[in-house]
Amino acid sequence: MTARTVPAVLREAASRFAEREAVVDGDVRLTYRELHQRVRELARWFVARGVEPGDRVAINSPNT
Predict the structure, then answer these.
(1) H-helix or E-strand containing 52?
(2) Residue 58: left if φ>0, alpha if ψ -120 to 50, beta else—which one?
(3) What band does 43 get if pLDDT is binned at 50, 70 and 90?
(4) Could you give the CA distance from residue 6 to residue 59 in angstroms, rounded to a whole number?
(5) 3-class DSSP state of 57
(6) What percent of the chain is helix, strand and coil (3-state, nearest 5)?
(7) CB atoms within 10 A of CB 32
(8) Nearest-angstrom CA–CA distance, 6 and 42
(9) The model's pTM
C-alpha cells in the first residue's frame, strides 16, 4: 500500500468531488473545492510568517 499524505488526499478529493459538500457546521457549508482553497490560503499564510518544512504548528480548536 502506498503511503498517502493528507494534502494529497485533499487534492484528490477536491478534484474528484469538487462541488460536493466536505464540511457542514451549522450555517457553514464548504465544498471540497472551497475547503482545498481555504487550506491553500492558510498554508500561504504560514509560509508568509516564516513557517518552513519540518517546523511544527499547533492548531487549537474546540472538540466537537
Answers:
(1) none
(2) beta
(3) very high
(4) 16
(5) coil
(6) 45, 15, 40
(7) 21
(8) 15
(9) 0.81
